[in-house]
């Protein structure tokens, strides 16, 4: 497969799996605070969930340097939008990231990261997954892990956590948002599922500490939301 031919940086400090769920009035994103070297050494205390604006939250997996670089470029993008009085939305950011990742990938300078973008879009919760090769999609739940996607044999664990989330969500009955039919679950249900998934990851990486970051975009009304990022002990 073409993805397996992407060269791995010999000195890459990588972040592992990021999980996300969209619920009836918001988005939850969870990730640990650990970077791992190619030799397996763990470096603790590195945050991989970011508040981009008052309506956008982002989580990233993969090379720490590439992730910080793209965050810096997003800040420049946001500055340009603010300069002209344009509000950067999650959909706009996702489209921009898709083009950036695709450009780098097709020019032989693939960014070694996958990202998840959440937030408030047109009064509704938004969740998108953008891969290092420029492919992207919107979904009600997702999991990204750059390293698992390109190394043969490592993809199974990320898929296992993803399938766990999928199964738990499918067990729940549909709910409604302001009287409109919806298949989105309630916040309490989403929180339970994502914390349980984080516990699965904690048991998998048994040498890691058990502190995760939980990022949330909780919609207040059609034009505003509360974004909070806090530590989560599993």
Name the CATH architecture. Answer: 4-Layer Sandwich
Give me the number of helical elements. 5
CATH superfamily: Aminohydrolase, N-terminal nucleophile (Ntn) domain
Look up the CATH topology. Glutamine Phosphoribosylpyrophosphate, subunit 1, domain 1
> Average pLDDT across residues?
84
**How much helical structure, as a percent, in the residues?**
25-40%
For this structure, what is the CATH class?
Alpha Beta
Q: Give the topology string: H per helix, E per strand.
A: EEEEEEEHHEEEEHHEEHEE
Q: Uncertain spans, ≥5 residues at pLDDT below 50?
A: 1-5, 150-156, 173-181
Q: What proportion of the residues form beta strands (DSSP E)?
A: 35-45%
**How can the largest sheet be summarized?**
8 strands, antiparallel
The outline comes out as globular
- Ends: how far apart? 36 Å
Radius of gyration computed on alpha carbons: 17 Å
The count of β-strands is 15
Secondary structure class reads alpha+beta
How many domains, as an integer? 1
Summarize the structure.
This protein is of the alpha+beta class.
Describe, in plain words, how this protein is organized in 3D:
With 234 residues, the chain is α+β, with helices and mostly antiparallel strands. The protein has a single domain, classed as Aminohydrolase, N-terminal nucleophile (Ntn) domain (Glutamine Phosphoribosylpyrophosphate, subunit 1, domain 1, 4-Layer Sandwich). 33% of the residues lie in helices and 35% in strands. It is built from five helices and 15 strands. The protein has helices at residues 64-83, 90-106, 146-150, 155-171, 187-204; strands spanning 14-15, 18-23, 26-32, 34-36, 42-44, 49-51, 56-63, 113-121, 124-130, 136-138, 141-144, 175-177, 180-182, 211-221, 224-233. Strands 1, 4, 5, 6, 7, 8, 9 and 10 form an eight-stranded antiparallel sheet that branches. The protein has a five-stranded antiparallel sheet with strand order 11-2-3-14-15, with helices on one face. Helix 4 runs antiparallel to helix 5 (187-204). The longest helix is centred in the first third of the chain and has 20 residues, at 64-83. It starts with 13 loop residues before the first strand and ends with a strand. The model is unreliable at 1-5, 150-156 and 173-181 (pLDDT under 50).
